[in-house]
Design goal:
2 domains, FAD/NAD(P)-binding domain, alpha+beta, 26% strand, 6-stranded antiparallel barrel, 19 strands, binds flavin-adenine dinucleotide
């Protein structure tokens, strides 16, 4: 039986502790006052623990071989064995039946207790030193000696720096984007069923769904997912265009607009009423440099169709609150059991590894998968 220190009481550290405790004496260090605190804010407080969809395209890198060891079905079974009842929604996102993240934390905490894991709360690890065949862990309270160490600290890079471990710098992902264009007049508006295209390095990346306007930028699941591509390149300069009527081809929309010319509309404002929300109508007219009181004529039709199908924004940065960070230790520097190739008995789990996913439960799935793999193999 080895003495193991697991640093970080988040999703991956907790599941790792549960599996590692089957064969080892495990201590879990957490700098918060309770384990899994971040889980409380996931999935809008509901905790979207995984997703039943195929994982192709969900991550920045191919993690099929890891998922084969612990995939979404095994994750659901694991939680079910802990007593958690789950359901999946139309998007195949899996949540606790209670719709409350605290149910997930409760069942994990119960299991940690049953497994005899020594949970040290409010204790931040500030230094990990390699001794001959052992590790010295120094926390804000005292020092300890362990045989093996697992680093599960999310995107906190302090220990990586202290251990002189190479990693890809972290960049905020699943984050709202700031735009050059002033979006103040649209703030609070939600557009559903739109198609959003990110133009990045001559490539087009498509997302369908909902966009939410903020004071100085854009948000919503579509935008979060597109932000992942920007984060992976650590470059938040790109252009985004929104097709507000993706179910209409350009020609069909031209026809619709032509037909409206035949109606007895007083002015441009009236012409646009019945299309979108007033804020968007104003924005479209502004983009086309048409005043509310102007009369819409044949020559405006193409302009309007373009504004409706290609509402353009220039991205110039990101907001502060991100859900995950892209970057971390490259998988190529870790063994199949996620042990650092250059230091024996030093393991990593979760977000600190350079694996990041889009919205929908994929990031937590990586936390469960990586935590289980290390816990079982350590
Ligand atoms: C608002 C929000 C919503 C999200 N929603 C979802 C969602 O619905 N579905 C999904 O899949 N993902 C979601 N995520 C992402 C998900 O939370 C992360 O991918 C996941 O928590 C990563 O797990 P982890 O174990 O790697 O790190 P974390 O969960 O970040 O845990 C790290 C832990 O380590 C502790 N720690 C850090 N440094 C030290 C230290 N030096 N000493 C001791 N302890 C330390 C921290 O306090 C923390 O407890 C969301 C994230 C946010 C912020």
């Amino acid at each position: 039986m080895s003495r193991i220190a697991i640093i970080g009481g988040g999703a991956s550290g907790v599941i790792c502790s549960i599996f590692a405790s089957k064969k080892n004496d495990v201590t879990l260090f957490c700098c918060d006052d309770k384990v899994g605190k971040k889980l409380l804010v996931t999935g809008n407080g509901k905790c979207n623990i995984t997703n039943l969809k195929n994982f192709d395209m969900a991550y920045n890198t191919d993690i099929t071989k890891y998922l084969k060891k612990f995939d979404q079905m095994q994750t659901i079974k694991f939680f079910s064995n802990l007593g958690l009842v789950t359901y999946s929604d139309q998007e195949q996102r899996v949540y606790p039946f209670s719709n409350s993240a605290s149910s997930v934390i409760d069942v994990l905490n119960n299991k940690l207790k049953k497994c005899g894991v020594d949970v040290k709360l409010n204790e931040e690890v500030i230094c990990v030193e390699q001794l001959k065949n052992k590790f010295k862990i120094t926390t804000t309270l005292q020092s300890y000696i362990y045989d093996k160490v697992v680093v599960s600290v999310g995107s906190n890079n302090k220990l990586l720096e202290q251990l002189h471990i190479k990693y890809k710098p972290f960049s905020p992902s699943l984050v709202s984007l700031k735009t050059k264009e002033d979006t103040h007049s649209l703030a609070g508006l939600r557009l559903s069923n739109v198609e959003v295209v990110l133009n990045l390095n001559n490539k087009k990346i498509f997302e369908k769904g909902e966009v939410l306007f903020k004071d100085k930028g854009i948000s919503g699941i579509c935008i979060f997912n597109l932000s992942a591509y920007l984060a992976r390149q650590n470059n938040y300069n790109a252009s985004i265009s929104i097709d507000m009527m993706p179910s209409y081809t350009h020609e069909k929309l031209l026809n619709l607009l032509q037909e409206r010319l035949k109606c007895d509309f007083h002015n441009a404002k009236e012409f646009m009423q019945g299309f979108f929300n007033e804020k968007i109508n104003n924005n479209i007219l502004k983009t086309c440099k048409i005043k509310n009181e102007d009369k819409i004529t044949e020559k405006n039709i193409c302009q309007l169709a373009k504004a409706i199908k290609q509402l353009k924004f220039n991205v110039i940065g990101h907001y502060e609150n991100n859900q995950v960070k892209s970057g971390g230790i490259l998988l190529e520097n870790l063994t199949a059991a996620l042990q650092y190739k250059y230091v024996n008995n030093l393991f990593f789990t979760g977000e600190i590894i350079d694996v990041d996913g889009i919205c929908g439960g994929y990031n937590l799935q990586w936390a469960w998968t990586s935590g289980k793999i290390v816990g079982e193999n350590i």
